[in-house]
Amino acid sequence: MNASCNRSFIESELIRIARLAGEAILAIYAQAGLRVETKDDGSPLTQADLAANHIILRELQQAFPWPVLSEETPIEYAQRQNWTTFWLVDPLDGTKDFLERNGEFTVNIALIERGKASHGVIHAPAIDELYYGAVGTNAWCEVRGVRTDLPQTWGRRTLAQSRHHDVPQAAEFAALNGNPPAVAIGSALKFGRLVAGQVDIYPRFTGSSEWDTAAGDALLQACGCQLRALPGLKPMTYNTVTLRNPHFIAAAPHVALDQLSYPI
Fold it and tell me: Is the separation of the CB atoms in 10 and 134 below 8 Å?
């Protein structure tokens, strides 16, 4: 199967699988007592992470010939270093948002082709928001049953802030660039809100992993937006040895990234 020749099938399957995973997450989200484990890196792990991961891996492997790399099923670099096409998955992005029950957690699924994100879906099941984008073709969102083509228009400059990963450099970046109003948003939902015109800049000055950004990267590219590594403003690449991202900035098309000031 060639990804470029089957875009409609990829789109329909990604939406179906993301929604299936979302249903499994919400079934656990509704339970009173959530069992939480702690992973080696100190991040939380719940039954919902594992249930969504199981569904996504099963469904992707049944529908497509490409391997799957997920946050919850790590694969050594020696095994994946020659992959040219694969799925990159975060089955539950924003586990802290899930535990706080604020609704701003997502299912992230991206297709990576030769180190670049080409298709991505971000689904926030608790608040019924879904964003889909394929580079070179189309992008859309469905919010509480209403589907809208993307991108939408942007107004006054607004920053997206992380709810749980704020660092001093974020405040410094804001101060260096006129202290625009800021909105706290959880998980990869920030990428969806950016293409929907609710924010137009999302700087990230703390650590993240490739599965946190890949789906959003495809969505942003499909909408003519920007996701660039810092420093240097180069495009993001995927399937590196460590699977860790550099610091980065995401922005709407009208934002001149080279004219912004960045913390040293």
Answer: yes
Angle ∠(11,73,33) on CA atoms, nearest 5: 95
Q: What is the pLDDT of residues 227-237, one digit of tens each?
A: 999 999 999 99
Q: Set out the domains of the chain in order of their start, with CATH numbers.
A: 3-149 (3.30.540.10), 159-259 (3.40.190.80)
For the entire predicted model, the pTM comes to 0.94
